[in-house]
Task: structure prediction
Amino acid sequence: MTEALPACPVCSGEFTYAMGELMICPECGHEWSPTESAEAAAAATIRDANGTPLADGDDVVVIKDLKVKGGSGSIKVGTKVRNIRLVDGVGDHDLDCKVDGFGPMQLKSSVVRKA
Result:
């Protein structure tokens, strides 16, 4: 019985094959190391200020006062933000959310802790 090989992370092609320690996709030509892929996925986890992993739908609490550009006032310490959404590749902000009294905005995970 043959071992099932992982699909290509770029094109999701299922015809990958191993060549030494590398995996190769004949459909798009992408080459990758399965061990590095697992390490990169673990490192890509978004964590709060305390190091706790965050997930879509979590509730968080703001840990420091935040000035809001273009708005009046600031978001105070202890403000609870419900139902966050994790985003990737949007500058240095990695959370999409709605803050009561301010509306939709993006926050950095380093200024919140999991509720």
The first strand starts at residue 17 and ends at 19. The mean pLDDT is 86. The first helix runs from residue 34 to 43. Helices lie at 34-43.
